[in-house]
Structures are given as structure tokens and as C-alpha cells.
Amino acid sequence: MNPRSALFAALACTALYVAALVWVDARNQIFAQLPRVAVWLPGMAMVSLATYVVRYARWYGLLRRAGHSVPVLAGFAGYLAGFAFTATPGKVGELVRARYFARWGVPAARTLSAFVYERAFDLLAVSLLAALAIPSGRLFGIVLAFVAGLIGAVAAVAARPRWLQRPAARLRAAGWRRTGRAGRTLARGLSGCRLWLTPRDMALSFVLGLVAWGGVAASFAWLLQGLDAALPLRAALSTYPTAMLAGAASMLPAGIGTTEATIVALLALHAVPLGTAALAAVGIRFATMWLAVACGFAAMGWLERRGPARAGDGTGRTTAPESLGRS
Predict the structure, then answer these.
(1) Which of 88, 179, 211, 299 meets the CB 3.0–4.6 Å disulfide criterion with 81?
(2) Helix 199-226, helix 41-65: angle, nearest 10
(3) Between these two residues, 248 and 23, which has the higher pLDDT value?
């Protein structure tokens, strides 16, 4: 894949986001209040960078378990490169990530499997954090059961990918080609996850995901405190994860617009003024999504200048039998 092919889409999405901010600013004067957020942004950015390290540690460990040895620093850059096109349609970022990890002998199918596996456990972690605001212990137990059911579903389909491949084939035959193709791709990704369907790998992946996304949720709660938005701790911690789920459900690139609107709506339930809520939404998105995009492009630039790994430098070797690298 040529990363330049998606650059215009990224710039277009960025322009639309800025245009939306200008429109909202005309009513709420958000830009005039940005200095209130600027004080907190450096600390929030450090938290986000720390979560990238935690998530990469999980990614690196998954590849090691699959028998692939990659250079730690360059591998981290390759992982960050996947964030460059977060705000663009489709999974272009994962295509970029596959491009770079292929330099170190990681097949594209294995990269896809690792992506599906980590996304599944990210979804579980975010869902659990979003459930913190549920006041009823019974409802919280239902959410925990749902999370456990998702883990079981991922494990079952990974072990029996034909359960998803057959419906996907029927959808394609019925004319639902895009849906069928998405199902087939998901089945392929999950089938490659079988290697990691062990109690140790699953528990570690879930815990690291919970640590990473819990850090982001705590960062947003910290921002709310700095903006004098009085929320109960559980509600503050669950607001951003809930908004992320709403953004994912919208199917928009990075949930642009939907995530911010959900944050504002949830904060309004706690009598937070509209201007403060919009400011908090913009602040957390700059410290998370747009920081990730910036880090992704910086990593891509470094990797492109560095060029492919040279033969014999040991960065593309595979330490396990060839069968482990297949999906």
C-alpha cells in the first residue's frame, strides 16, 4: 500500500472537523475558552502516550507468541503508524501497519489477526468502563455477563471460523457484497487468533486493555475536574468510554461528531453548561484522537526515511515454525 493514497482523505476529514468547530464556536465561543484546556493538555497527552506504550506491549507480546521477532523501537513506530489515518473511512491505518510489519517478516494475515484480537479486548475493556455509571448492581452484573459472552463469542468464532464464513458467503450470494466481504475478513482475522486463545493471553490482553483505556478515562475525569464540572467519579470515568461506543456504533471515521455530541449530551445530564461540555469534548479529542493521528504521521515519516530492513540485519527473522505464521 502507498500511504500517500489516503493522505487527501485525512486532510479532508481534518478540514471538516475544523469547519464544525468553527460553526460550534459561533454559538458557544469555544475558541475563546481554549486557554482553560491548554493547561491540562500536556498532562493528558502524556497519559495518551503512556497508553500507546501499554497497547504496543500487548501487540508486541502477541507477535512474539506467534513466533515473530520485530525490533522494539521500529516496531513501536510501525504500530503508531496505524493511527495516522484514524480519521479516514475504512481501515486504511491497518493497511499501513501491515506494510511496515511485513518488513520484519510478519504476514499481512497475522497483522490482521492481531488487530482483530486487540480490538475485541479493547471493546470489552471500554464496555466495562462505560458500565461504571450504571447505578444498579443487577444491571452491572448483566453488563459483566455481556462482556463475558463477548469473550466467549470471540473465542468460539476464532476456533470455528466457518460459523462466520458460511453466513458471509450467503450474504455475498444474496447481493450484500460489502457486508459479506466484511464478514469474511473478520472470519479470517479471527481464525488467526486461535494461537492466542489461552487463559494467559486472554487475561493479559484484557488487563492491558483495561489499563490503557482506564488511563484515558481517568484523563478525561481529570479534565472535567479542571474545568470545574462537578460529576460523581463513576460518571466522570464512564463518560468518555460511553461516547467512544456511540462513536463506534455510528460507523463514522473515528466517530467524528458522534463522539463529541455524546459527550456533550452525557454531561448535560449532570447540568454541565453547554460551553464547558463542548470544551471538554474538544479537549479530550485533541489529547487522544488528534494526538494519535499526529504520532501516526510522525512514525510513518520516520519509517519511510529509514527504508526497508536490510537483509541480514536480523529484524525480519521468524523464531517459530512456519506453520505458526499462517492464518
Answers:
(1) 299
(2) 170
(3) 248
Neighbours of 54 (CB within 10 A): 18
CA angle 85, 89, 92 (to 5 degrees): 45
pLDDT of residue 291: 92
**Distance (Å, whole) CA 37 – CA 230:** 16
First to last CA, the chain: 20
What does the pLDDT read at residue 255? 76
- Asked whether residue 71 carries a pLDDT value surpassing 80, the answer given is yes
Helices (H), 39-107: 41-65, 72-81, 92-101
How does the average pLDDT of the chain come out, rounded?
A: 81
Q: How many CB atoms lie within 10 A of CB 43?
A: 14
In angstroms, the CA 279 to CA 263 distance is 10
Classify residue 38 as exposed, middle or buried by CB count within 10 Å of its CB (0-12, 13-18, 19+).
exposed
The alpha carbon of residue 17 and the mean position of all alpha carbons in its chain are separated, in whole angstroms, by 19
pLDDT recorded at residue 102 = 92
Q: Is the pLDDT of residue 130 over 70?
A: yes
Find cell 489516503 and name the residue.
6
Rounded Cα–Cα distance for residues 192 and 57 (Å) = 19
> Count H helices, E strands: the chain?
14, 0
Residue among 132, 28, 127, 111 at smallest CA distance from 68: 111
Sequential DSSP letters for 98-149: HHHHGGGT--HHHHHHHHHHHHHHHHHHHHHHHGGG---HHHHHHHHHHHHH
CA-closest candidate to residue 74, choices 50, 96, 103:
103
Q: Are 173 and 166 in contact (CB under 8 A)?
A: no
